[in-house]
């Protein structure tokens, strides 16, 4: 199962831009999300539809633009820091999109939790350990609906609050980067950070405009366009989601249909 993230108290969340300040509207480009299929280089994980890569050792994880490149295009620090006040260290998790046998199973293509949304890169299989799980989330913004799955089983079908029209949540494929226990009632009891970012807000309350999925202290606004990019669930539903996912908190695919 995907790595269990230590639960933390978070005094102030700055995931996405979930407040109510009004920016100047900007057009958000369309995204073409990758799939999350693995080619089968990890037979011990074949029963899991989704694979997540974790750094094998703490420190710097090298990411390459292409397999077999002589030098990395960038590095990621493990553990990574969240957009929280104060910042919190969490394990670096990368959703695997491909594990090509053509490369002798030495490389993984992974989604990266950076701008622009949908960024991918390659990591050496020897630099990471891979875990599998069966969970996924689908978000239908225009229908104000979220469905969560365990395999083919629907484990949650719930109404949501979505972003206002001038701060839209960009459609595409993301994944959960962390699960935080919130001490701020505005975010309910729990908040998942997502790998995507607002395409209108480049910063928010000192953070990077990271998207999130969390509870709310305004249940009457579920079913409306209320947030600045985050997706809101009633507190009972975010509690149910966390309970259903159990130890799997990172690397859960989240497909957002705009």
Could you characterize what this model shows?
The protein is mostly beta strands. It has 2 domains: 9-18 and 134-257, Beta Barrel (L,D-transpeptidase catalytic domain-like), CATH 2.40.440.10; 43-133, Roll (SH3 type barrels), CATH 2.30.30. Helix content is 4%, strand content 40%. The protein has one helix at residues 235-245, and strands at residues 9-10, 12-13, 50-55, 59-63, 74-78, 80-81, 84-85, 89-90, 93-98, 107-111, 120-124, 128-133, 135-140, 145-150, 153-159, 162-163, 172-182, 190-197, 210-214, 225-227, 231-232, 253-257. The strands form 6 sheets. Strands 1, 13, 14, 15, 17, 18, 19, 21 and 22 form a 9-stranded mixed β-sheet that branches. β17 (172-182) and β18 form a beta hairpin. The longest helix has 11 residues, at 235-245.
């Amino acid at each position: 199962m995907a790595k269990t993230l230590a639960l933390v108290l978070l005094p102030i969340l700055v995931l996405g831009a979930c407040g109510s300040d009004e920016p100047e509207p900007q057009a958000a480009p369309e995204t073409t999300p990758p799939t999350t299929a693995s080619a089968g280089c990890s037979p011990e994980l074949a029963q899991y539809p989704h694979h997540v890569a974790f750094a094998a050792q703490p420190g710097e994880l090298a990411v390459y633009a292409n397999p077999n490149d002589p030098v990395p295009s960038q590095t990621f620090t493990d553990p990574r820091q969240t957009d929280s006040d104060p910042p919190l260290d969490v394990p670096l998790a990368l959703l695997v999109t491909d594990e090509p046998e053509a490369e002798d199973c030495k490389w993984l293509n992974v989604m990266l939790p950076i701008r622009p949304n949908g960024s991918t890169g390659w990591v050496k299989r020897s630099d990471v350990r891979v875990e599998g799980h069966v969970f996924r989330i689908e978000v239908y913004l225009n229908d104000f609906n979220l469905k969560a799955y365990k395999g083919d089983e629907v484990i949650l079908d719930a109404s949501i609050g979505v972003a206002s029209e001038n701060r839209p949540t960009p459609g595409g494929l993301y994944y959960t980067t962390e699960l935080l226990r919130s001490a701020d009632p505005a975010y309910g009891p729990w908040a998942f950070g997502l790998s995507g970012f607002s395409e209108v807000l480049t910063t928010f309350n000192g953070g990077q405009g990271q998207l999130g999925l969390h509870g709310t202290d305004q249940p009457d606004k579920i079913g409306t366009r209320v947030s600045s990019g985050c997706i809101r669930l009633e507190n009972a539903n975010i509690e149910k989601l966390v309970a259903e996912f159990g130890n799997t908190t990172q690397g859960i695919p989240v497909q957002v249909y705009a």
